[in-house]
């Protein structure tokens, strides 16, 4: 029935009947017209209505179920939509918020233009020589370290190539309505001044698609500046780098400097490097040199785009040389002086002094007797954490059991530190709680801003996707199979660690801003806690289980528990719904205690949190559920056998080799040698320590004594470099989880867990109990071992590492890894 044919009768006539027009009117000839329908037809009609209603309700309900995962929690945002805008937060608007680039700058606008550096050694025999842009371990740089960075107004970084060092200095100048100006000073310094090295710097500016406008100013064939407009930045001008003097030229030599530029278009920000490489052509440098010199080819804008959005200036010279980039905001009208030359140097100097003074005030390392190079190392660790903070915008791909295909989470910003600039330049939920133990010490406002952003990513179920891969630059770094996040899967709620420190301070100081912050956070925290307490609970009351373990995989020696954060740490060999995980129980106990304290200080109902906290920290119940009498340790419990190994699959019987399918999967598969049974999982390592790590074991419990004995036993966890992740005696120690996956949490020393160990030892050496003195002794030597080794490895290799080899102390895995490994600063400062 067309809508036009349906008209409501004028009022006063029968209710709920409709006047029919045209063809439909003929239906009135139906014998039972005038409302006297055949009872049979009436029944059919009613049935149809019911069926339709049921179907519609059903489909609506299905849609509702599918959408739950992407429905934000109904609670005001912690960081309102304008919270990162230059009007509300000018001091954090611009920053080095592209941790994946060696040097990259952007603003906290969701469609911010990006600026950054690429460079290339020229006149080599490579065709073309490697172009550096995104941090990449494959580049084999000797190091790249933010030596000082305050997370807000400035940063100084050194990037070390084999033949030269690049110093990138970033400095801001407040003013106007759009976050003010900033300048970058970039210096290329040869290691051996007698050796001739020619390097090209490519400094670029790019719009995120067509958000804004750029106009290049080209004078005498040189790109001198770019002016532009963007909705969140207003008008702006960027002075592109110039060399004041060719410092590299020796007396009497003609200075060798060449300029070129590229004005082009990039559809996506992750294509900048490829597009630039395509814009390179080979030229001769001078008559004396035969090696190729690569230079940019000028204007190349495709016809079908609105205009150029990617502009690059190439400066090539013999080392050393220094250049400045100056960004000026159009709304900054009363600027006294531009941020360059002597002014830049002077402001930078005072910023560095401020940084040094604040660093000592916060961490007291000089006072504690650390030497200058040790203090500089600690400054680098902190600065890399702060310099690694990024600003991302986009949506995660997520899936619940109601979705057949992954769907997009809502688009949102994320301001967060990252674990590792080359390898993990994006947000990770459980890392971030650790990061904020350090960040909050330096600048509690930055920390609140970060935690607020994360909490705003919570959906109505209380779930926060654990790995945040937002925006094209971030997605380009992740293989697609790892992109999708599932709402059944949790990750340790480590934000309760910095929140615990915050609430402790708040109870003492009663600072109104802290109280307001916790009050705003509270509804989200309540839902977050409830998510863990309900979705992650085990079959038996008051037990908990990590979800996301796959019992069907055949190649894994022990099915991974990615959700726990400890990936291949051995758990029950056969995942079941009644297994129980001691680490998760302890995390939830911690969370309940912090929730109680927050609720109580806000005058909210806190008794239920207190009840849950008491129950989960009750040592008798804990021991009953998780203490293995046989192994004398805290353990997971589940369907388990230790007797399993990886073997090459046997070929099907009675088959000649030539008859086998060519593509037969020959990867090793797991073979079970002894049938599993329900039991405690007797792998000894970090997971067994959790009741101790999170200070749940009673200070008077003899189990604490046993734990102290075990961690100091060199055949178990003790090494000269920190506590290893799993006992050297364990069957899983150093074992591959599949033919191709080397041990990860099966031996190496991890700094976040060692930080928790020190924190626990610090605690047990300050509360009364029979093991107080013992805890103190262990604390001192563990702390010394960790700090000494991380520092030694930094000096030796130029990097802070993802983890450390338990036999040699050598840094391993991704690097630089200045996420939680940077907690070494807190170990030095004894802040827990
Ligand atoms: C930011 O937005 C809030 C509403 O969400 C508004 O009350 C406030 O005035 C805005 N602040 C500024 C500086 O625009
Ligand atoms: C946590 O879950 C248990 C049930 O498993 C419940 O009894 C308890 O009240 C919950 N705690 C809170 C604070 O909601």
From TrEMBL:
<comment type="similarity">
    <text>Belongs to the glycosyl hydrolase 63 family.</text>
</comment>
<feature type="compositionally biased region" description="Basic and acidic residues">
    <location>
        <begin position="11"/>
        <end position="25"/>
    </location>
</feature>
<dbReference type="GO" id="GO:0005789">
    <property type="term" value="C:endoplasmic reticulum membrane"/>
</dbReference>
<keyword id="KW-0378">Hydrolase</keyword>
<keyword id="KW-0325">Glycoprotein</keyword>
<dbReference type="InterPro" id="IPR008928">
    <property type="entry name" value="6-hairpin_glycosidase_sf"/>
</dbReference>
<feature type="region of interest" description="Disordered">
    <location>
        <begin position="1"/>
        <end position="25"/>
    </location>
</feature>
<keyword id="KW-0472">Membrane</keyword>
<dbReference type="InterPro" id="IPR031631">
    <property type="entry name" value="Glyco_hydro_63N"/>
</dbReference>
<protein>
    <recommendedName>
        <fullName>Mannosyl-oligosaccharide glucosidase</fullName>
        <ecNumber>3.2.1.106</ecNumber>
    </recommendedName>
</protein>
<feature type="transmembrane region" description="Helical">
    <location>
        <begin position="40"/>
        <end position="59"/>
    </location>
</feature>
<comment type="pathway">
    <text>Glycan metabolism; N-glycan degradation.</text>
</comment>
<dbReference type="Pfam" id="PF16923">
    <property type="entry name" value="Glyco_hydro_63N"/>
</dbReference>
<comment type="function">
    <text>Cleaves the distal alpha 1,2-linked glucose residue from the Glc(3)Man(9)GlcNAc(2) oligosaccharide precursor.</text>
</comment>
<dbReference type="InterPro" id="IPR004888">
    <property type="entry name" value="Glycoside_hydrolase_63"/>
</dbReference>
<dbReference type="InterPro" id="IPR038518">
    <property type="entry name" value="Glyco_hydro_63N_sf"/>
</dbReference>
<keyword id="KW-1133">Transmembrane helix</keyword>
<dbReference type="GO" id="GO:0004573">
    <property type="term" value="F:Glc3Man9GlcNAc2 oligosaccharide glucosidase activity"/>
</dbReference>
<keyword id="KW-0735">Signal-anchor</keyword>
<keyword id="KW-0256">Endoplasmic reticulum</keyword>
<dbReference type="InterPro" id="IPR031335">
    <property type="entry name" value="Glyco_hydro_63_C"/>
</dbReference>
<keyword id="KW-0812">Transmembrane</keyword>
<feature type="region of interest" description="Disordered">
    <location>
        <begin position="643"/>
        <end position="665"/>
    </location>
</feature>
<feature type="domain" description="Glycosyl hydrolase family 63 C-terminal">
    <location>
        <begin position="340"/>
        <end position="830"/>
    </location>
</feature>
<dbReference type="GO" id="GO:0009311">
    <property type="term" value="P:oligosaccharide metabolic process"/>
</dbReference>
<dbReference type="Pfam" id="PF03200">
    <property type="entry name" value="Glyco_hydro_63"/>
</dbReference>
<feature type="domain" description="Glycosyl hydrolase family 63 N-terminal">
    <location>
        <begin position="93"/>
        <end position="263"/>
    </location>
</feature>
<dbReference type="InterPro" id="IPR012341">
    <property type="entry name" value="6hp_glycosidase-like_sf"/>
</dbReference>
<keyword id="KW-0326">Glycosidase</keyword>
<dbReference type="GO" id="GO:0006487">
    <property type="term" value="P:protein N-linked glycosylation"/>
</dbReference>
<feature type="compositionally biased region" description="Basic residues">
    <location>
        <begin position="1"/>
        <end position="10"/>
    </location>
</feature>
């Amino acid at each position: 029935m067309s809508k036009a044919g349906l008209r409501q009768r004028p009022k006063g006539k029968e209710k709920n009947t409709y006047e029919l027009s045209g063809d439909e009117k003929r239906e009135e000839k139906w014998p039972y017209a005038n409302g006297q329908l055949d009872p049979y037809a009436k029944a059919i009609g009613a049935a149809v209505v019911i069926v339709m209603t049921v179907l519609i309700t059903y489909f609506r309900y299905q849609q509702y179920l599918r959408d739950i995962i992407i429905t934000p929690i109904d609670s005001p945002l912690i960081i309102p939509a304008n919270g990162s805008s230059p009007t509300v937060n000018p001091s954090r608007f611009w920053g080095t918020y592209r941790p994946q680039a060696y040097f990259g700058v952007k603003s906290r606008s969701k469609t911010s233009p990006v600026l950054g550096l690429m460079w290339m050694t020229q006149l080599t025999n490579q065709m073309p020589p490697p172009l550096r842009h995104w941090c990449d371990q494959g580049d084999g740089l000797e190091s790249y370290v933010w030596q000082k960075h305050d997370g807000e107004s400035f940063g100084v970084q050194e990037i070390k190539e084999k033949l030269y060092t690049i110093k990138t200095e970033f400095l801001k100048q407040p003013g106007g309505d759009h976050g003010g100006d900033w300048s970058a000073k970039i210096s290329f310094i040869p290691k051996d001044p007698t050796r001739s090295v020619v390097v090209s710097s490519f400094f670029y500016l790019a719009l995120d698609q067509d958000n804004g406008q750029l106009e290049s100013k080209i004078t005498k064939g040189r790109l001198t500046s770019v002016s532009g407009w963007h909705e969140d930045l207003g008008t702006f001008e960027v002075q592109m780098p110039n060399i004041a003097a060719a410092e590299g030229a020796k007396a009497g030599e003609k200075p060798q400097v060449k300029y070129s530029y590229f004005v082009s278009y990039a559809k996506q920000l992750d294509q900048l490097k490829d597009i630039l490489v395509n814009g390179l052509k080979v030229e001769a440098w001078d008559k004396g040199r035969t090696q190729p010199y690569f230079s940019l080819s000028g204007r190349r804008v495709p016809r079908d785009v609105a205009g150029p959005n990617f502009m690059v200036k190439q400066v090539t010279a013999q080392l050393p040389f220094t250049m400045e980039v100056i960004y000026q905001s159009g709304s900054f009208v009363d600027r006294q002086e531009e941020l360059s030359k002597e002014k830049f140097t002077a402001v930078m100097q005072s910023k560095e002094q401020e940084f040094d003074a604040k660093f000592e005030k916060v961490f007291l390392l000089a006072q504690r007797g650390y030497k200058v190079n040790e203090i500089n190392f600690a400054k680098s660790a902190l600065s890399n954490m702060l310099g690694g903070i990024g600003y991302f915008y986009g949506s995660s791909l997520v899936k619940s059991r109601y979705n057949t295909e992954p769907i997009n989470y809502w688009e949102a910003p994320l301001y967060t530190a990252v674990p590792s600039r080359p390898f993990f330049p994006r947000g990770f939920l459980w890392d971030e709680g650790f990061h904020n133990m350090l960040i909050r010490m330096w600048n509690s406002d930055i920390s609140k801003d970060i935690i607020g952003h994360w909490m705003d990513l919570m959906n109505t179920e209380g779930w926060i996707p654990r790995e945040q891969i937002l925006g094209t630059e971030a997605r380009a770094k992740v293989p697609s199979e790892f992109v999708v996040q599932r709402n059944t899967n949790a990750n340790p709620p480590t934000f309760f660690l910095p929140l615990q420190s915050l609430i402790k301070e708040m109870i003492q100081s009663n600072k109104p801003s802290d109280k307001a912050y916790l009050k705003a956070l509270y509804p989200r925290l309540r839902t977050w806690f409830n998510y863990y307490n309900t979705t992650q609970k085990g079959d038996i009351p008051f037990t908990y289980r990590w979800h996301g373990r796959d019992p069907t995989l055949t190649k894994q020696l022990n099915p991974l528990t990615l959700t726990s954060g400890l990936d291949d740490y051995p758990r029950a060999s056969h995942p079941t719904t009644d297994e129980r995980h001691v680490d998760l129980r302890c995390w939830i106990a911690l969370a309940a205690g912090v929730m109680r304290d927050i609720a109580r200080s806000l005058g909210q109902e806190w008794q239920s949190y207190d009840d849950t906290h008491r129950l989960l920290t009750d040592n008798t119940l804990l021991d009953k559920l998780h203490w293995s009498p046989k192994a004398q340790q805290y353990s997971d419990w589940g369907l388990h056998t230790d007797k399993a190994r990886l073997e090459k699959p046997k070929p099907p019987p009675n088959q000649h080799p030539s008859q086998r399918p060519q593509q037969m999967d020959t990867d090793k598969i797991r073979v079970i040698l002894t049938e599993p049974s329900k039991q405690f999982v007797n792998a000894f390592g970090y997971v067994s320590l959790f009741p101790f790590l999170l200070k749940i074991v009673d200070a008077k419990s003899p189990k604490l004594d046993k734990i102290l004995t075990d961690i100091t036993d060199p055949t178990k966890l003790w090494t000269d470099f920190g506590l290893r992740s799993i006992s050297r005696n364990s069957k899983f120690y150093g074992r591959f989880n599949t033919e191709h996956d080397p041990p990860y949490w099966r031996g190496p020393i991890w700094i976040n867990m060692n930080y928790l160990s020190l924190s626990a030892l610090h605690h047990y050496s300050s509360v009364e109990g029979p093991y107080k003195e013992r805890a103190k002794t262990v604390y001192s030597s563990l702390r010394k071992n960790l700090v000494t080794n991380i520092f030694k490895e930094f000096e030796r290799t130029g990097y802070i590492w993802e983890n450390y080899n338990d036999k040699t102390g050598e840094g391993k895995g991704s690097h630089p890894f200045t996420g939680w490994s940077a907690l070494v600063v807190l170990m030095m400062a004894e802040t827990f």
